[in-house]
Design brief:
CATH topology of the largest domain: ABC transporter transmembrane region fold
Strand order of the largest sheet: 10-13-14-7-15-16
Number of helices: 19
Structural class: alpha/beta
Number of strands: 16
Number of domains: 3
Length: 630
C-alpha cells in the first residue's frame, strides 16, 4: 500500500466502513458549502482533462490534415480551436487548485475537531485505561492514525473521486471513438491487473515483515538510549551492538525483499503501458490504412490510452490507502467511545469562612484554607460537614481484574491529624489503598467513609482536591520551577510557592539553579537529580495545602542527610493533617501514630512502633532486617 513517499504500509482494514464514514462526515458538517464546491471543482477538473484530449480529433482532421500542402492556409479557425482547448485546460487547472486548497482547509479543520475530542475524552478516561494501554499505543492515535486520516481527506478522497470520474469519462470517449480498439485496451488491462495482483501479494507480505522489523529496531534503540548509563556501567556495549546488528540485519533483509518487489512494479507497469500504447497504435494504423479510421481519431484514442491506465493504477492504490485511513479513524473513534470515568457523586467541597467548631458555617467563594462538604439532604436542602480528614476503611475487598484479590476484608481508621503508616512487602496492597482513597478505582465490596460520608457520594474532583499526593515516580512538566510547584495550586502567589519550597527544603538548591525559580525544566526535569525532583514534588503538595496527605515513598529518592534536613519541614506540613505514609525505609515511619503491616492484601499487624516491635512479628522482622543491612 503506497504511503506519502511511495513506501508501503501494513494493510489495515476497517471493520465497519459505513459507520466510520458517517462518523467522519458528522465532523465535516460545518464545511458542507466548501464540500459542495470541492465536488463541483473535481468534476470540472476531470471533465476538462477528458474534453481537452478529444480536441485532438477535430484539430487534426479539420485543420492540420487539410493544411498539408497549402501555401497560405487560413489559421483563424485553428487558432480559435487552440484557444478554446487552452481555456478548457486553464479552467481544469484552476479547478484542481481550488479543490486542493479547499480540501486542505476542510481536512485541517475536521482533524482539529477530532483531535480536540480525542484529547478531551482521553482526559476523562479512568486510570485503569492507562494501566492497560501503553503510552506508545495511545500516542499512535494522535500520530499514525490522525496522519493517515489527514492524507486521506486532503489528498486520497479527492484523487479517488477525480480518478473515478476520469476513468469513466475516458472509457466512454474511447467507446465512442472506437469500440474495437477499446476491447483491445480492456484485454491488455486485464493482463496488467493480473501482474499487479501477483506482485502486490508478495509486496504486501514483505512490507508487513519490514514494518515488524522496523518496530523491533525502533523499540530496541529507544530502550538502549534510555538505559545508556546502565549499559556503560556494566560494560555491555558489545552485547548491545550484537543485539542491534541482529535486528538491523533482519530489517535489512525484509526491506530489501519488500523494496525489490515494490520497485519492479512500476517499471513493469510502465513497460506494459508502452506495449499497450504500441499495440493500440499499430492496430489503429492498420485500421486507418484500411480506411476504417481517421488520423484525428487515432491521435485522440492513443492519448486516452495513456491517460486510462494511470488512473486505474491510482484507484487501486488509493482504495487501499483509504481503507487503511478508515481503519485508523475507527481506532480513534473507538477510543473516543470508550466509557469515561463515571462520577455520580453529589457531595461537593466548598470554601468556608474560618470559625469555631460549631455546626454553623458560612460558605464563600475565596480560598480560605478551610473547607466543608456540601451534602444534599432528602428535603432538597444542604447540610455542611466540616472537612476534618477522618478516613475509615470498612471491610474493603478489591480486585483490579476481577480474578486476583488485591485487598481482602481490610478495615482500619485514621482520625483527623493522625499519621498512618502502611508497610509491607512489594505487592502487599499499600498503593492500592491510596488508589481507592482517591477513587482511581471503585471498590467491589465494603465501603470507604470520609468525614462520615461514603466516598462514592463525593464528586471525584472535589475528593481529590482534598487530598495531596507525593508519588515515588515524580513527573515534572515542561515549564519553570515556579510553574511546576504552582501546579499543586494554580491560584498560589509567588510568595506562596517560595514558602512551600522552603517548607520542603527545596529553596536552597532552587536558588542555585541558573535562573532560580524561573529556570525552565524540560524532559521531565532531566537536568535535576532524582532527589531534587522529589523535593519539587513535595513542594507541589505543600502549596496545595490539603487536609489529607498521601506520601507514597516520598523520600525514597532522597539521601539520608537530605531526608534529615526536610524532616522538620515535613512535620510542619503534616501538622493538623491526616497523613498516609507508604514506606519501605522503616526509619521514616517510627513516629507514626499507627503502623499497618500488610501481607497478601490483609492487615496482619497494627500498632505504633514500640508495640509492633514488642509483638516480634512481621514488622519486627522487617525492622531488624533493615538494621542488619545497614
Amino acid at each position: 500500500m503506497a504511503g506519502p513517499h511511495g513506501h508501503l504500509r501494513a494493510k489495515r482494514k476497517p471493520k465497519d466502513v459505513k459507520k466510520t464514514v458517517k462518523r467522519i462526515l458528522s465532523y465535516m458538517e460545518n464545511y458542507r458549502p466548501q464540500l459542495i464546491v470541492v465536488v463541483f471543482a473535481i468534476v470540472v477538473s476531470a471533465a476538462a482533462g477528458v474534453a481537452g484530449t478529444y480536441f485532438l480529433k477535430p484539430l487534426i482532421n479539420q485543420y492540420i490534415v487539410p493544411f498539408i500542402g497549402k501555401e497560405s492556409p487560413d489559421l483563424s479557425g485553428f487558432i480559435a480551436m487552440l484557444s478554446l482547448m487552452g481555456t478548457i485546460y486553464v479552467v481544469g487547472a484552476i479547478s484542481t487548485y481550488a479543490y486542493s486548497r479547499l480540501m486542505i482547509t476542510v481536512a485541517t479543520g475536521t482533524l482539529y475537531r477530532i483531535r480536540n475530542d480525542l484529547f478531551t475524552h482521553m482526559e476523562r478516561l479512568p486510570i485503569g485505561h492507562f494501566d492497560t494501554h501503553t503510552h506508545g499505543e495511545l500516542m499512535s492515535h494522535f500520530t499514525n492514525d490522525i496522519d493517515t486520516l489527514r492524507e486521506m481527506m486532503s489528498q486520497g478522497v479527492p484523487q479517488l473521486i477525480s480518478s473515478g470520474i476520469t476513468v469513466v469519462g475516458v472509457f466512454l470517449m474511447m467507446v465512442i471513438l472506437s469500440p474495437w480498439l477499446t476491447l483491445l485496451v480492456v484485454g491488455m488491462l486485464l493482463i496488467m491487473f493480473f501482474v499487479i495482483t501477483k506482485i502486490g501479494k508478495r509486496t504486501s507480505t514483505f512490507f508487513k515483515r519490514q514494518q515488524e522489523a522496523m518496530g523491533k529496531v525502533n523499540g530496541y534503540v529507544e530502550e538502549m538510549i534510555e538505559g545508556q548509563k546502565v549499559v556503560k556501567v556494566f560494560s555491555h556495549e558489545k552485547a548491545v551492538l550484537e543485539g542491534f546488528d541482529l535486528r538491523n540485519e533482519e530489517l535489512c533483509k525484509a526491506a530489501t525483499s519488500a523494496n525489490t518487489f515494490a520497485n519492479i512494479l512500476m517499471p513493469i507497469m510502465g513497460n506494459l503501458s508502452y506495449v499497450l500504447y504500441a499495440v493500440t497504435a499499430a492496430s489503429g494504423a492498420a485500421m486507418a490504412i484500411a480506411g476504417r479510421m481517421d488520423l484525428g481519431t487515432i491521435a485522440s484514442f492513443l492519448q486516452y490510452t495513456r491517460s486510462f491506465s494511470q488512473p486505474i493504477t491510482q484507484l487501486s492504490q488509493l482504495f487501499n490507502s483509504v481503507l487503511s485511513a478508515l481503519a485508523g479513524a475507527e481506532r480513534v473513534f473507538k477510543l473516543i467511545d470508550e466509557e469515561p470515568e463515571s462520577d455520580q457523586g453529589d457531595v461537593i467541597l466548598v470554601n468556608i469562612e474560618q470559625g469555631d467548631d460549631s455546626d454553623g458555617v458560612s460558605e464563600c467563594t475565596s480560598r480560605t484554607g478551610h473547607w466543608a462538604w456540601k451534602v444534599p439532604t432528602e428535603d432538597g436542602d444542604f447540610q455542611y460537614v466540616r472537612l476534618r480528614g477522618d478516613v475509615r476503611f470498612e471491610n474493603v475487598t478489591f480486585s483490579y481484574d476481577g480474578e486476583k484479590t488485591v485487598l481482602n476484608d481490610v478495615s482500619f481508621y485514621a482520625k483527623p491529624g493522625q499519621k498512618i503508616a502502611l508497610v509491607g512487602s512489594t505487592g502487599a496492597g499499600k498503593t492500592t489503598i491510596t488508589n481507592l482513597l482517591n477513587r482511581f478505582y471503585d471498590i467491589g465490596q465494603g465501603r470507604i467513609v470520609y468525614d462520615g460520608i461514603p466516598v462514592d457520594r463525593m464528586r471525584k474532583d472535589d475528593l481529590r482536591r482534598s487530598l495531596g499526593m507525593v508519588l515515588q515516580d515524580t513527573h515534572l512538566f515542561t515549564g519553570t520551577v515556579m510553574e511546576n510547584i504552582r501546579y499543586g495550586n494554580n491560584s498560589a502567589s509567588d510568595e506562596d510557592v517560595v514558602r512551600a519550597a522552603k517548607l520542603a527544603n527545596a529553596h536552597t538548591f532552587i536558588k542555585h539553579l541558573p535562573e532560580g525559580y524561573d529556570t525552565v525544566l524540560t524532559a521531565d526535569g532531566a537536568n535535576l537529580s532524582q532527589g531534587q525532583r522529589q523535593l519539587l514534588a513535595i513542594g507541589r503538595a505543600a502549596v496545595a495545602d490539603p487536609p489529607v496527605l498521601v506520601l507514597d515513598e516520598a523520600t525514597s529518592s532522597i539521601d539520608t542527610r537530605t531526608e534529615a534536613l526536610i524532616e522538620k519541614g515535613m512535620d510542619r506540613l503534616m501538622e493538623c493533617r491526616t497523613v498516609f505514609v507508604i514506606a519501605h525505609r522503616l526509619s521514616t515511619v517510627r513516629n507514626a501514630d499507627a503502623i499497618l503491616v500488610l501481607e497478601n492484601g490483609r492487615i496482619i499487624e497494627r500498632g505504633d512502633h514500640d508495640d509492633l516491635l514488642a509483638q516480634r512479628g512481621k514488622y519486627y522482622q522487617l525492622y531488624t532486617g533493615m538494621f542488619e543491612l545497614q
